[in-house]
Design brief:
The chain is mostly helical and 146 residues long. It contains 5 helices and 2 strands; from the N terminus they run βαααααβ. Helix content is 63%, strand content 4%.
Length: 146
């Protein structure tokens, strides 16, 4: 049976469950922020009105859109994954507090809990790293069939 094996002494199998799981996790987390950034572009005026309704400065909306898209692409490709995931985790927590937290409400907003869960997933990605299926992981390593 063919499998990819690195010639490095401390390597893991590139097609392991661990590597595939991290790849799918990166795709899922990046997809959330890619979709969010694209929706903000497509529905810019509605998003701007929503921000103004929550007393958030609408003039930083283009910066937020660029940040979401760039960070999501970084996580998706596995480039600077730890930095991007910690920044997006902080962004998710700030978003949860600014847009979805209401002290006067009887129950916690599901969107607040969703942002907390996303932040936790991003923190797990920060701790575990991107895995071996990235554009930058061991670029000098040669893989052979064995």
């Amino acid at each position: 049976m063919f499998s990819f094996v690195s010639l490095r002494r401390d390597s893991r199998h590139i097609l392991s469950i661990y590597g595939i799981g991290l790849l799918f996790g990166r795709i899922a987390l990046a997809g959330i922020f890619l979709r969010s950034g694209i929706e903000k572009i497509l529905f810019y005026t509605e998003t701007q009105s929503y921000w103004i309704g929550h007393n958030a400065p609408a003039m930083i909306l283009p910066i937020v859109i660029m940040f979401e898209l760039a960070s999501a692409m970084s996580i998706l490709l596995g480039w600077k994954t730890r930095s991007a995931s910690i920044l997006l985790a902080g962004f998710s927590l700030v978003t949860a507090v600014v847009f979805h937290f209401d002290i006067a409400a009887d129950m916690v907003s599901p969107l607040f809990i969703e942002n907390l869960v996303i932040a936790c997933g991003l923190l797990v990605l920060c701790v575990s790293g991107p895995g071996l299926m990235t554009i930058t992981k061991y670029p000098h390593t040669k893989y052979v069939f064995s």
